[in-house]
Amino acid sequence: MTKRDRTPCETQRPRRGLILALCFLGLLLILSLSGDRSLLQFYRMARVKADWEHHIEVLKPENALLRQEVDAMRRFPSRAEEIARRDLGLVRPGEIAYQFRKR
Fold this sequence. Notes:
Shape: rod-shaped
Structural class: mainly alpha
Order of helices and strands: HHH
Distance between the termini: 105 Å
């Protein structure tokens, strides 16, 4: 059978298969790049996770200091009074507190 003997349907079948395969691959590519479970969303979430992990590492020393302060307040009640006086400006009844302006 020569090229002239083939019908138009026989010559277009391989092209149809190729076109269908390309359409399927194009659709697969579009679906993998868009939507909730896409590659782009996966990349974004990986970056967010890395940012949060960094933020956690930064907060760990501060958390340790706060734990030490809570422990000190439990052991020594006077420590709680000291913090209340310093941070909140509290005074005992009958005490006179002097405040000086900074120039």
